[in-house]
Design brief:
two-stranded parallel ribbon, globular, 3-stranded parallel beta sheet, 201 residues
Length: 201
């Protein structure tokens, strides 16, 4: 688990527990920033199961080579020789690339949150590098057996938008929702009338 925020703790810990109980995983570990150590330790109070290892790393923003070395070292420390490893990359988006790159190069299955990466040069986001970086990672990944996926929220998915949202939008338009209460001819409409309409609708 690369990054251990509130969402990971509340939403994914039950999945980790089920996977371990079912024999799909033997353990789990955390990689997070040294500056987050106290917060992470607080989140782990009462966690079941506890992580096998906790690796706290320095924030390496602005130094890409050092950030890549940090990712390489952290993943190397938690890897168990002879056993497959899976990585869930849930760090701040500026750190996605180095961990994803290391997973791709090492053949480690990964799941990365959207957006996949935000290339940083110095301390600034450089969107011009997104396409070339992704092309490079895809080319490298195609030569390995590991699988890599992107977690995207359902509201951003075309199936969700085309089948769920479009259907609701069509119904709302057909039913003229939200409905408005009629206003007597000649009466001015006030903001309070709109608020009442929204509550009533």
């Amino acid at each position: 688990m690369i990054g251990y925020d509130e969402i990971v703790r509340n939403k994914y810990m039950p999945c980790i527990k089920e996977a371990i109980e079912a024999g799909h995983l033997d353990s789990w570990s955390i990689v997070d920033l040294e500056g987050e150590r106290e917060i992470i330790e607080g989140r782990l109070v009462g966690a079941d199961p506890q992580p096998r290892m906790k690796i706290f790393v320095p924030a390496d923003r602005g130094n890409l080579e050092r950030a890549r070395e940090t990712a390489r070292s952290a993943l190397g420390l938690i890897r168990l020789p002879g056993l497959p490893m899976k990585a869930y990359i849930a760090t701040e988006v500026g750190s996605h690339e180095q961990y994803l790159r290391q997973c791709v190069e090492d053949g480690v299955d990964s799941l990365v949150e959207k957006p996949v990466l935000a290339p940083i040069i110095g301390d600034e986001f450089d969107p011009s590098l997104i396409s070339t970086t992704m092309a490079e990672l895809i080319a490298t990944a195609s030569r390995r057996k590991a699988r890599h996926s992107v977690m995207t929220l359902s509201r951003y998915h075309s199936i969700y938008n085309d089948r769920v949202i479009a259907s609701l939008r069509d119904r709302m338009l057909a039913w003229k929702s939200p409905s408005r209460r009629p206003v007597a001819p000649g009466s001015p409409r006030t903001p309070s009338d709109d608020r009442k309409t929204l509550r009533a609708g």
